[in-house]
Description:
With 144 residues, this protein is α/β, with parallel strands linked by helices. It has one domain (15-139): CATH 3.90.1180.10. Helices cover 28% and strands 17% of the residues. The strands form two sheets. The chain has a four-stranded parallel β-sheet with strand order 5-2-1-6, covered by helices on one side. Strands 3-4 form a two-stranded antiparallel ribbon. It is globular, with a radius of gyration of 17 Å.
Amino acid sequence: MKTAAPKANQIQQNWYLVDATDMVLGRLATQVASILRGKNKPYFSPHLDTGDFIVVINAEKIRLTGNKELSKTYQRYSGYPGGRTEIPYKKMLEEKPEEIILHAVKGMLPKNILGRLIIQKLKVYAGSEHPHGGQKPQILSLTN
């Protein structure tokens, strides 16, 4: 018995529009990561990029549950001694709300070349305007 792998001409990639207003960050990120990988399609293959493109708007209106708004921090390290930087969630939400969703979704993708290819199909915008009107994205309502 052979396993059927999709050919390049059989893979159809659609564009979807997701409004992040009042959505919980983790729940939004898991559903977006699943669609980016293509797990919602019958011909999903873990070694191929079978997923769709996703445009997320209103990233500044995302919310967290519990006490995470006060305690969550984002860290990065420059590689030099004393080069660790911690940014609180509130400051990140004010300055770069797109990075919050990108960081959450990127953590749920494979840590290899395929994951780096898949994350490029995610477009996140702070406001309700986006430049992808030419692709005619379909509105996707995710459960909260």
